[in-house]
Amino acid sequence: MHLLDAEGDGRRLLRKGPDEKGGQPVQQQPDDLRDDDRAEDAEPGREIRFDPEMTRMILAYGLPSGLQNSVIALANVVVQSNINAYGEMAMSGCGAYGKVEGFAFLPITSFTMACTTFVGQNLGAKQYDRAKRGARFCILIAVIMAELIGLCYYIWASELITLFDGTPGVVALGVQQARTVALFYCLLAFSHSRWT
Length: 196
Fold this sequence. Notes:
With 196 residues, the chain is mainly alpha-helical. It has 7 helices and 3 strands, in the order E-E-E-H-H-H-H-H-H-H. It has a 3-stranded antiparallel β-sheet, with no helix packed on it.
């Protein structure tokens, strides 16, 4: 291991073995610099270049997730336009349901984002087996978490929706939607986590 000699002129190094506490001074020649030492001295941006293979990998991993989010956003627009046809109570009930659902699904979304990071780091390190095991674990935990949260939402739907709108008609419609959808959160969690 090499350490710069703090008292020297910056050209001397201390060479240490794994068990040595002190070191033997060695003269450093300019060609002794490693590539990372040279990179620190280079001008910023000189080493940046387009890497087609890396771009292909980024698109291969990122495009499915981007498409999924686009489809979900488009589906929400279609669903909301259909709900608007049923009037003000339906819009308010679905709005209150949506607010509670946003809070309910936040832990699952956060967990799957963390899993994406974990799997991505392992893919980058070429530890494909560990990435596969991590992805399977993430899918399983996300599905279990989503079903537990959905079950709680199913049981306490009226209380949770009343937090946002206490109008009886709005609560009834919100509870109806919550009890229709909440037990199937596991499918949404699977959808979010399977791209990891």
